[in-house]
Amino acid sequence: MNRLAYRLYRRVSALNHWAMRRLTPGGWIVLVGLILTGGMATDTEQSLGYQAFAFLFCLCAAAVAVAPFFRVTFSAERELPRFGSAGQVLPFRITIRNRACRAQSGLQVLDNLTDPRPDFAEFVAAFRGSRGGKSSGFASAPDPRRVRGPKPVELPPLPLGGSASVKLELLPLKRGVLRFESVTLARPDPFGLFRAFRHVALPGAVTILPRRYPLPAITLPGAQRYQHGGVALAAAIGESEEFVSLRDYRPGDPMRRIHWRSWAKTGRPVVKEFQDEFFVRHALILDTFAAPEELAVFEEAVSVAASFACTIDTQESLLDLLFVGPEAFSFTIGRGVAHADQMLELLASVKLCPDKSFASLQQIVIEHAGAVSGCICIFLAWDDARRELVRKLTVLGVPVMVLVIREPGAMPLERRADDPESLHALEAGKIEEGLARL
Amino acid sequence: MNTPPFLIAAVLLFWGWQTGPLLIGAVAGAVLESSRLVRFRWSLTQTDFNRLSNICVVLFLGVGTFLLINEGTVSLDDFFGNAGRRPEALRQAGRSALVWFQWFPMIFLPLLLAQVFNDPPRVGLATFSWWLRKQELRPPYATLPRETVDISFSYLALSLLATSAAAERGAYFYWGLVLLVGWALLTLRSRQRPLVVWLALFAALAGAGFGGHHGLLGLQRKLESMNVHWFSQMAAGNFSDSEVRTRLGSIGRLKNSDRIVLRLTTDGGVPPELLREMSFNEYHYRPDRRAPSLWRVDRREFFNVPGEADQSTWLLLPRKVSRHTLTVAGYFRGGEGLLPLPLGSSEIASLPVGEVATNLFGAAKMRSGPGLAIFKVRFDGRGASIDSGWTTNDLRTYEDVEPALARVAAELQLHPGLPPAEAMRRVREFFAEKFQYASRLTEEHAATRGESALARFLLHARSGHCEYFATATTLLLRHAGVPTRYAVGWSVQEGRGKNYVVRDRHAHAWTLVWDGQNWLDLDTTPSTWNAAEAEGTSWLQPVKDFFSDLWFQFSKFRWGQTEWRKWFMLAPVPLLIVVLARFFFGKSWRRLRARRQEEARVAARAGADSDFYRIEKHFAARGLERGASENWSEWLRRVETATVAGGRLKVERSETGSLEPATFHSSLRLVLTLHQRHRFDPRGLDEAGRVSLREEVSRWLAREDSSKTF
To answer: pTM above the 0.80 mark?
Structure first.
């Protein structure tokens, strides 16, 4: 049944895609009119619909008939930004150069993405997810689109051998990599109903970062910690503990710490003294363990993680992102190691991990616990396994802030006496409100 | 509005002109165009548009339901019937549907008005889709910019579509349509080519469309001629009361549908073989294949039958005593038509109609009745009927136009003075022995220059359908001086027990013969005609019959005399009231409901996280659950008793030393007091109280756990 629904979805969406690109708004109206008057035309004695049908049929036939005569040679260039954000309009430019032997006018530009439709597993998961809630049926079916637009844009007249540039806009609806395939030049027929096409291949890609929410001023838990290896992490090469002072050589001091110039000046061996680095380092733990049906909740969790990654001041601190994908990941930003953009890029491609257990995340977190000042846990549920992880972190003396993302309309979180004070439930769809209350 | 100035007004004027309400169209157009001059604007939200759309949908469905109930009769199986039947079915259903179509511009006018007087003048796409409305409430989409459209061009198209549903065949419609569509397309045209070229191309297309629609008309006529509808103007109650066109000389396959036209219930006896609707006495010969010969009556008058006091019983022959009763159920378009009655009917009962009238040719016509009539007929095939006695016109032989009949009459030795019974026997035997039934009419049946269609039938083809046999019999018997009439109606042949059905294909023609005292039915069509007609029966017939029965049951309810029907017609009214009320008061209701829900949520939540429940769980795990009707104090007393009786008292004392059992449970009572304050006190428990409650519970449980280890 699901397979049938998916096939139906693919066929209908393909037809819709074709019609949306080929037909102008006027063309849609004429086509619908043609179908309806066609129904009336089955009986010429009952109404005058057959007269309208005959006329609209001639219009449509003429509009389609001239399409094969559209000939134009052109090249295209697309200027894409490196990143976009889900839910924010992404503008970009396309420049068309006329390679034909005559000037062109009245053309439109369309940009073509690779097939953005979900595969069967994603489709089924999305539908199951929609039925998991209170409502079910067609009205609550999810929107499978990844992007809205770009709409056809009128191209300024193209002189012979000249070029023209247009600004297109699309609205990414989901995070991930958006791939472009080709650019199409279209020419509507003389009545402005049906578009004739010419394509040119022009691959491209843009990473769509997760949606971010504004965070209030949050005092993150934890104090400064000694970082093993100092700022070796933070600097590009070697050790780079903080220089404190010079002092006389004591037996046992390493030779490499001898300050030769001072020895030359004073005539006795002098060594450089360093201080170990202490700074704040937070771990951002992202839970990826949920059933495919809970995709919407997971997306919200990624958005919350992205919000933290953007907001935490990494000038003076480090932020580790810990999650489990195909394997366990630990990614650190801050103090020159890497930038938040890179973490967002990573978050743009995080996927659910339904085939592994929560224990795999627990292991990597406990390994990191010694180095971090505090943990921000973004969980998709609040069960015994997650409680156990938080308990262990508490036992290890790591302060924890726990954010549990829940489905819309879910029952209030069942709290126990031993649950941490900083446990907060955030409802999908009302994340911004929930974060504001932190 | 993104339409050119005055285009919408012109379209609405055109609509009003073609469909009737010219003034309404003019006013609506003027109001819409005034938005270009008037600066007044609303600030409607998406919710307002959604409500307005709901109102339009209710109006849309309400008008549709109203028209369905009040316009002609519609049979579901007609929609799924064979192609040949479809135009006729559409004629019934289409009347309602097309009137409905015509009112679309007014039904959806509120939406366009809301758009043109709104700032900005656009409508959210979600207005037209429940799915999009749901999507816009979902997490990612709630924050996205809303997709909007301008519906003025769509409205314009809808108005033109509604105009084309007009049935009046005017010469101006097509050119008006072309002009208005051209006006609209002019604004959408590609600027690539000069205007002159565009105009020339458009004119060529308009010409092609003109030719095309004439071609469509011709095509339909051609298709109709390929499938000759036998008695095409016939349906229950729909025979003409003045004339009947025959299909003598037509070529093609006779094709009538399997639609159930009448449902009969007998009193247990055998049903009448024939149900007559009308009879005729004048034959009008016409050699044209497309307009074949007619049968007419020489007197068209109908005479009202005085109704009984209950206005549902009609005495046709007050003095006649009939032995049989037949219940007939059939659809009557517009509540009027000829009643199918067996010969010798004397009384009609249970027929609550405004008027019943009869004529000299045995027809009974009802007026101002329901769309579905179910009535009882008292009849007796023997004896008098409501037909008048014979006149000279019942003896005219039409030798001038049908000379072949004289030849056949001579062959059969039919001469004046022959006893009617003998004449009838000869004619019956003649047709039974030498003729066959045929539903496919070929060139052999067509009239030639020298011979009429009837002559071809009698002398060459020797096969045909019932109209040939009935016409020939009627006219042949007149050569023997026997007064005859041509009768049309239905043949009863399908059914069992008391229940019978008559289908569209059971339409039939036969002869009425005057035996000297009364009129008798004489049917000379070979009896194989039933089987021949049933041959083309669709394998879907049982399914169609099932739906037909469903429709019949619904129609019984719909046309019944109970109060239910009135209530059914009023059904959309509360819905409209609800939608209107939501439109005007929805916002405040929603706010009130949200507040109540919040209050309920707070009330339900208060104290739900109390630590005292841990103690309850503790005892429940030991088999001391709290009963559904037990309050906390009662339950604690029971727990106390059970604990002491279970020997735990001793253990507790030895473990805790100074702690007495009474004191121990007193501490629980303290916890209970705190819990109840937390649970029920409107001011709740302050933070210190919560901490105290938590600590007391933890301490108590710790003691319990340590005591358990001993």
So the answer is: no
